Amino acid sequence: MPTTIDQLFDVADYVTEEEREWQLKAREFAQTRLAPIIDQAFEENRSPSELLPEVGAFGAFGMYMDGYGLPNASSVAYGLVAMEFEAVDSGFRTALSVQGSLTMGAIHKFGSEEQKQQWLPAMRRGEAIGFFGLTEPQGGSDPNTMLTTARREGEEWVLNGTKRWIGLGTIAAVGVVWAKDEEGVVRGFVMPTDTPGFTATAIANKLSMRASLQADLEFVDVRLPLNAMLPKAKGLSAPFECLNEARYGIAWGVMGAARSCLELAVERSQTREVFGSPIGGKQIIQAQLADMFLEYEKGLLLALHLGRLKDSGNLAFGQISVGKLNNVREAIKIASQARSILGGDGITSDFPVMRHMANLESVRTYEGTDEVHQLVIGRELTGISAF
């Protein structure tokens, strides 16, 4: 009998029993609740957001944070959950990241006790969905070009500006909005989405992440009380800390998409026949599968290493860039090679490979493009910034 991917490299050998329990719980949810509906949701350009309360019910939102009823699980456990979600669809893993790592992360790291008590328990349960409003139409990877402003008027802040590509923006109950104050300093604000002057419009013409929600946001004289500001956030370092949390999750998540594609390629190599025999018996196919597996295993070991560094408090942002850059790049290569092995069937919706390929192009772009992470690593190596 052939050896399965998990037998050839079983991540369970390198994680704790508790971390493995988190992974298996996430796998069961992803395979039984998400997988049966994801292809249709992608086809319909619809996010299966009705499942988000179930994600909250088993504790995955903000799961590596403490207090406020949060599980305080390890960063490795969170990575394993992200991997199992993305093994079904990158877009659904993105929702986990936007809710837990970005929005809850910002409130947990930089919020007042009142803000934490008001929002974190409900967000943990998936009863309140949140967005993280940083990216702007003109800014892309350079948030320092931010045009959204926060002006002090008496006992209120008045926000004006626009944001783009904001996950969960159209269904959120609360948002963390980043804006420059009158001194040009970036500040974060916790904003209920029923605040007058705020509108969110879904971005509908996507060819990637179609089972995920992204939105354009507009703020027109949005008035917030003074205590809406995150008191511990000052400057771009605050949102960047949140982005690093999301980038860490990506390093794990994309290995799920890679695994899904690799498993399909192996299966098809055994059952698809050309010239009278399975293609898996051809040397070139076996060489391709071996290379795909090597990059999957190396990527997963890298993610695990980063997770252990993170849990020990020793993970540097340059190392996160290594994980994001390498693992997304290799996941795309694995998906592309899997598509080739599947032949013409690989471009059909009978298999998830093209959906993974399309989604991974978005993952490659958000939370820092390849080029941004190359420059981060280059700066670490040389001590010279080339931005």
UniProtKB/TrEMBL annotation:
The keyword Flavoprotein applies. Its cofactor is FAD. It comes from the Bacteria. Residues 234-381 form the Acyl-CoA dehydrogenase/oxidase C-terminal domain. GO terms for biological process: fatty acid beta-oxidation using acyl-CoA dehydrogenase; fatty-acyl-CoA biosynthetic process. Gene3D superfamilies: Acyl-CoA dehydrogenase/oxidase, N-terminal domain, Butyryl-CoA Dehydrogenase, subunit A, domain 2, Butyryl-CoA Dehydrogenase, subunit A, domain 3. InterPro entries: Acyl-CoA_Oxase/DH_mid-dom, Acyl-CoA_Oxase/DH_mid-dom_sf, AcylCo_DH-like_C, AcylCo_DH/oxidase_C, AcylCoA_DH/ox_N, AcylCoA_DH/ox_N_sf, AcylCoA_DH/oxidase_NM_dom_sf, Glutaryl-CoA_DH_mitochondrial. Residues 16-127 form the Acyl-CoA dehydrogenase/oxidase N-terminal domain. Residues 132-222 form the Acyl-CoA oxidase/dehydrogenase middle domain. Keywords: FAD, Flavoprotein, Oxidoreductase, Transit peptide. GO terms for molecular function: fatty-acyl-CoA binding; flavin adenine dinucleotide binding; glutaryl-CoA dehydrogenase activity. Pfam families: Acyl-CoA_dh_1, Acyl-CoA_dh_M, Acyl-CoA_dh_N. Belongs to the acyl-CoA dehydrogenase family. PANTHER family: GLUTARYL-COA DEHYDROGENASE, MITOCHONDRIAL (PTHR42807:SF1). This is Acyl-CoA dehydrogenase. It comes from Leucobacter viscericola.
